[in-house]
Design goal:
Layout lengths: L8 H26 L20 E2 L4 E4 L4 E3 L7 E7 L7 H14 L8 E7 L7 H10 L7 E5 L2 H11 L4 E3 L11 E3 L2 E5 L4 E7 L10 H19 L1
Parallel strand pairs: 4-5, 5-6
Antiparallel strand pairs: 1-10, 2-3, 2-6, 4-9, 7-8, 9-10
Length: about 230
Amino acid sequence: MTTTLPAPRSQRLKLALTPILLVTAVGVLAAALLLPSPFKKRVKPIEEPPATFTLPVPDFAFTERSGKPIARADLLGKVWVASFVFTRCTGPCPSVSATMAKLQADLDLAHNDDVRLVTFTVDPGRDGPKELRAYADNFRAHPDRWLFVTGPEADLYKLINGGFKLLAVPSTLPNPVAGQEVDHSSMLAVIDKAGNVRGVFDGYRGPNDEGGVRYDAGQARLRELVAELRAK
């Protein structure tokens, strides 16, 4: 008669634990794949700069800060960057205009006649040529190549909302404080020589743009796009 000796205690323990360890491993893997934070850390990807596109800018006829008329036809043959601000703004407008001032230097506006910057007021009832001249002087805007535009409110809002597909509307607050009377986009639009919007980019570092990653990438792409359009 053959006697079967029991397996050593360590081996028996290993055999008993194997199924438990296997189930635990499967559970940890499932948690890593399926469960939300804190089991799985969610890493937000860096957003890419806005994609370029083609959007015709409708005809317009407004007044520049010099008092001279300015129309879409006057900008044909130029690559231009548009911004939308108002002089009383206590929100992002000063930062947007500072970005435009940097572009004035980066694009060497003084020596490049085929490039323009165009700032449209979104508060034309308060921003006439006089107010726009003072605002432009504060940012040392080139008198002929960084234009500041005003006109009838209905026409400006129609152009911005319907033409550029951006935002400009009176504040919905019942009694907005001074400097917050208008809700509007802080984006910059790049327009080609034929009068088509070809891309929009952040005009300032927004509160949700940690480290200015999106803003910096967008500004780099904006300058590249302007160079590409100038070469065509």
